[in-house]
Amino acid sequence: MEQRFLKRTWAEIDLDNLKSNYLSIAHSIKRNSDNFHTKIIPVVKADGYGHGDIMVAKTLQKLGADFFAVSNLDEALSLRLANIKGDIIVLGFTPSAAAEVLYKNNITQTILSLDYAKELNAECAKLNITLNAHIKLDTGMGRIGVAMHDASAFDEIEEIYRLSNLNCSGIFTHLSSADSLDDSSVEYTKRQIQKYTDALSELKERGISFKASHLQNSAGIAFFNNIECDYARAGIILYGVAPSSEPFPFELKPVMSLKSVVSLVKSIDADTAVSYGRTFVSDSPMRLATVPIGYADGYPRLLSNKAYMLIHGKRAKIIGNICMDQLMLDVSDIDDVKCGDIVTVVGKDGGEAISFDELAKITGSISYELMCLIGKRVPRVYIEDGEITEVYRYHHKMD
Ligand SMILES: *Cc1c(COP(=O)(O)O)cnc(C)c1O
After folding, report:
1. What pTM did the predictor assign?
2. 88-92 contacts: CB < 8 A, separation 24 or more?
């Protein structure tokens, strides 16, 4: 195969699976009620959860997505520079000093609070511009948004809505616990949903309505699907990973596989120390394979002496501390391992598979975090219909 990228450690992004997940999400929203017209806002923050924001957005744009969500202005500009059309919302904070950049690039800003709205409005008034905005309500996440604790919240929202240099075309909230299905979490989520729908009715009575209302994240789409908003914000499920260990109601196909290669195979004697700090010392003779992936590639050092990788469809355990750029595997029980053999770090090989969830459980984290951690020096190799269609790599972004 032609060498379009460095075959050291790389991430394969299966765009067919991405498309399949998008269509499954759309289908699941539709299946719940033929009258639901909820559209999907693909969440492509954090470089598309490590998958590459541009290729994810371009692929979903072809399927009709016309509204994307990111966490900050730089991420929004990354999409605009790549010629992504339609709406882009910044879900988090943007300093009011950047109002002109938001405006010039037609980016929608989340309103975090009344104070923030006033400051942003004042900046827009100075520039004589009107900025598109969505008002965030805090119904129980406790992060950003107008706190919905008593009726004064409606006065605050009304004041924001009437600011003349903000065009508040949308409103939304965020669920904190929709991925847990124990009684108390379900009750909490239902209360958040109720607060949100009550708020919309109260605002309607005050003559305030919005073109775009959205509430569900991935877990909301999956487990609290009896809701019709204009949009739902789909993040992790687009990438084919369930938001939690609760049984997932429809098929998701993992989009990313992480691959590496064997760089060296060697035999060691009993009583031989391996890697920094000598955290592993052999009891008996062993065969080890060295693999060029380390914590600088986003593979957490907390996995040292605990996690497995796949070679020839078999599990090989990590031995000794994970280094910045390399680590060692025990391949004593795997036949014929040689330099250049493929190592599957996350993904399937034969009948075996390793998921981000499996690794996240070991480090006490969540799959979200491990995906985002995949380093920028790991090339993203895009595959469609079994062919490499695009490569993003360190020294120039687009092939
Ligand atoms: C990240 C994020 C999402 C997406 O969450 P998933 O669980 O990945 O679907 C949705 N809404 C907001 C406000 C977010 O910050």
Report:
1. 0.96
2. 89/41, 89/134, 89/170, 91/43, 91/45, 92/144
Closest C-alpha to 41, from 189, 178, 217, 211: 217
From first to last of its 399 residues, what are the pLDDT tens digits of the chain? 456 899 999 999 999 999 999 999 999 998 766 667 899 999 999 999 999 999 999 999 999 999 999 999 999 999 999 999 999 999 999 999 999 999 999 999 999 999 999 999 999 999 999 999 999 999 999 999 999 999 999 999 999 999 999 999 999 999 999 999 999 999 999 999 999 999 999 999 999 999 999 999 999 999 999 988 999 999 999 999 999 999 999 999 999 999 999 999 999 999 999 999 999 999 999 999 999 999 999 999 999 999 999 999 999 999 999 999 999 999 999 999 999 999 999 999 999 999 999 999 999 999 999 999 999 999 999 999 999 999 998 775 544
CA-CA distance, 42 to 61, in Å (whole number)?
Answer: 10
- What secondary structure letter does DSSP report for 43? B
CB of residue 134 inside a 6 A radius of ligand 1: no
What DSSP element (H or E) covers 168?
A: strand 166-173
Could you give the residue numbers annotated as active site?
45, 276
User: Could you give the count of Cα atoms lying within 13 Å of 7 in the half-sphere of its Cβ?
Assistant: 13
Can you say how many angstroms the Cα of residue 189 is from the centroid of all Cα atoms in its chain? 21
Q: Rounded CA gap, 216 and 56, in Å? A: 20
Tell me how crowded residue 6 is: count the other CB atoms within 10 A of its CB. 15
Contacts of 386 (CB under 8 A, 6+ apart): none
Q: What's the CA gap between 165 and 132, in Å, rounded?
A: 9
Which atom of ligand 1 is nearest to 174's Cα? 13
Indicate if ligand 1 lies below 6 Å from the C-beta of 46. Answer: no
